[in-house]
Every structure is written in structure tokens, then in C-alpha cells.
């Protein structure tokens, strides 16, 4: 061990998609990195995650079902196939039974699920739980949070914007921004094409990135998993062609090469973006970022060279900002070096997770011996 106490941690992943590359989204990427990092630090980690995930051991009670769609075109990030919700509930019930029986095997639960059940484990199993809030408030999770007010439970949020949104609903959370592995997200040499990456869903609005590139007369490449087939067919496919290309979901090394060989990255959320991991990833490659200023986006870009924000939905302003960033990068190649350095300093996974490690250790302590954790909230 390179730090204090070895922890026995049960990490609870979101249930919809397996933790494996190419990652289904930023949430899955974050939890995948979390498990890997905690184990590298010497902690004993058990994973509760969807079937097919990396890192799963031989503990069937902690395997969650994955959605099975009758037809691929029906798959969705917002809906479930018939019977799936009940299957997930049953899996969490089985996990709770096992957790109660083996309570002595775990010090703390590191919960990233969007399901309310793991929140209540702090009350039902008497085990400390740290729940990371990765999304705007969800009603089932709010109800669960109200049930554990007197339990050994701590909430953390990935941005100030997300923390404020939950606080309005009565859930207070400390802020721990996400981190990325800057040893894996390496500096690229840049290029002429623009890039957009992420989940292909309406709230991420990649069609607006295509429109902005068209406005600027630039070529753009889109990468990511299709999370809404209807949206993809109606809004993306008709816009593809000479000036826009879709390359599908990519594993991290390939995505790093694509983003790092681009002139500028566009980030186009049209919802209260909790964090925007693709921003930190692009900056770590040295690629500048032009983004809609909504949710936690401005926090991720705060103090970053090679970045610009515009009013959400303003395609003309986004095109202008992106074109200026791309032109500046072409004139001043060292901009990519400075952008990368700033991203490493502000978003490296190691810096973030040392603080998370302290929160897990503090939460795992008996109430009688807890003191304020030595971290800057």
C-alpha cells in the first residue's frame, strides 16, 4: 500500500451496460477506471455490475442482468425492454441478501448506480455507502435519499452544477469532479478535421455539431455508441456525407488517436450536462474544445487554454468559436502542449482519486471515530 489503510470496497456500477470497451458512455468509463485504480492502489474490490463487464469475479449475486432487446433498433438509453426492470430489482434484492450475510467482508460501498436500491443499503445492511451523483436529480433516487438521512451515507457530485441541482431537491453533496487517465489520453499532433464524440442521443445533440461544422465549411468526424436509433436515423444519417462522417463506437486507444488528430472538438449538450468527460479527454490530447455552456461544462473548462463556450443551441457562435480555435492551433502548435499540461494538472485521474480514496476511508470508519476528512471540499 502507498497510502494508509487497505479498504474492502464493493463498487456498484450502473446496471444498463457492461463495463468494457468501447465504453457505453462517460459514466461507464469513469467506473471502469475507478475499479482499475482502486485495485492498483492495493484495495480489495468486489464489483456489482452488468453481465459481461470486465473485472467481475466469481460472485453471481453481484452480477446484474443486461437488457435484451427483441430488435436492435428498439434499443434505448431511456427505455427498458419488457421484464428488465423487474429482473434488475430481483438482482439487487439478491445482492442485498448476500451483503447482509457477508457484511463483515466489506468496509464501504462505492455506489455509482442510478437505481435507488444501493442507496438504501446503508440503512438495510448497516454498511457505509458513498453514492456519486452522475446525473441531474432522479425521483427514485431522491426518495431513497430521504430514507437514509440517519444512516452511514455520503453523497458526492461530479460538479458544482450537479450538486446545486440535487441540493434544491434536499440532497446535499460534496463535489468531486471526474478524472481521466492522462497516461492513456496522450497528446496528439492535431489535424484539419473537427471531431465530436459521445453517446449519440438527442440530449447530446451531435446533429448540432454537424451543422456547426457545415456553417464553418469544415469536415467533422463523429464517434460514439448510438443510444437512440430513431434519433440517429432521423437527425444524423441525413447529415452525413462529404463533410460529415460517423465511425461508430471506438475503444479508448482508437478514440484517443481520432481526437488527438483533430483540429478542434465540439461538445454540444442540450441538457444539464453533469460533467462532460469528453471535454477533459479532448483537452488531454491537446485538442481545443468549443462547447455549449450548460450544466457543469464551464467548470470543466475553467482556466483551460484552448477552449471556448457559447450559448447552448447557437450554431453560428459555435462554428465561429471552433474555427477560431482551430486556426489558432494551426498558427501556434505549442498551444496543444499548453492545453495538455493544463488538462493533466486539472483533470488527471490520480489527483482526483487520491481524494476519493480519503472519502471512502473516512466514510468506512465507525461514527464514533470519524473526524472531518483531510480534503478540500
UniProtKB/TrEMBL annotation:
Residues 25-184 form the Glycosyltransferase subfamily 4-like N-terminal domain. Residues 197-326 form the Glycosyl transferase family domain. GO terms for molecular function: glycosyltransferase activity. InterPro entries: Glyco_trans_1, Glyco_trans_4-like_N. Keywords: Glycosyltransferase, Transferase. It comes from the Bacteria. The keyword Coiled coil does not apply. SUPFAM superfamilies: UDP-Glycosyltransferase/glycogen phosphorylase. Its EC number is 2.4.-.-. This is Glycosyltransferase. It comes from Microbacterium phycohabitans.
